[in-house]
Amino acid sequence: MGLMRKTNLGRGLIHAWFILFSIFCIIPLLYVISISFSTESDIAKEGYRLIPRTFTTFAYDYLLHSPKQLINGYTVSIAVTLIGTALSLLITAMLAYTMSRKDFFGANKLSFFIFFTLLFNGGLVPWYILIKEYLHIDDTLLSLILPYVIIPWHVLLMKGFLSEIPLALIESAKIDGAKEWRIFYQIVLPIAKPAMATVGLFIAFIYWNDWWLAMLYIDNEKLIPLQYMLYRIMNNIQYLSSNLKAGNISVNMTQFPNETARMAIAILAAGPILFVFPFFQKYFVKGLTVGAVKG
């Protein structure tokens, strides 16, 4: 009886700790949402508040002044994220599966090559020359997808997951007459679903949050992704704010969205990811623990 009480007490303390920790994690997000619906004058006078003193959507009205441009940015980002994640995940899984096969004679050499590129890479200039001068895919969606198709860290992470698949399972499939492609698609991939979801989520984050490639390769306004569009809006806001401070523009600075626009941009950029993440949470948590314990 005493042991059960101690167990329940310990479990209750652990639950209380994680509840408290979760609250501390949620509070910053609530602050971001609150600030995005506040006025610049309230922020200048009272600082950040968890509940807006004056509720306003002025920052969002400013950012949504051209809804077609915003919708186009969302469309481009969603297309790049979906296509890029699917292509990158497939190639990453195939490469990692090849490296994880202990009966493949070139597995160690291939692993060393991937690990070497994790430590050393060609840098920006070779990529820029390759995209612009040799492949001629600048100003296309492919220029936003190709650079992130193979990321060495994701390949090594996937290899760690796939290495846990028993070789005897693959050998038995071969005895039954299955070819390598069938083994990969019908046996390996279903088993590695948690790992695929975890690595796929990492890849999707990279594609969704990227603005750097668009700044380098995209000139067509119709191909500008959401992140780069919001980045340019924020730069314009900073430029106007600096001129307001210098007195070059005769506008009340407290009425111009600066801090509120920053937080509104964060909400607009992170909103879709925050909506999608709960659907992958169970696979994500399971995928992080795959290979941690053998038994």
Automatic annotation (TrEMBL):
It comes from the Bacteria. One of its GO terms (biological process) is transmembrane transport. One of its GO terms (cellular component) is plasma membrane. Pfam families: BPD_transp_1. It is found in: Cell membrane. Keywords: Cell membrane, Membrane, Transmembrane, Transmembrane helix, Transport. It is a multi-pass membrane protein. The chain crosses the membrane at residues 12-33, 74-98, 110-129, 141-162, 183-208, 261-280. PANTHER family: ABC TRANSPORTER PERMEASE PROTEIN MG189-RELATED-RELATED (PTHR43744), POLYGALACTURONAN_RHAMNOGALACTURONAN TRANSPORT SYSTEM PERMEASE PROTEIN YTCP (PTHR43744:SF9). Belongs to the binding-protein-dependent transport system permease family. This is Sugar ABC transporter permease.
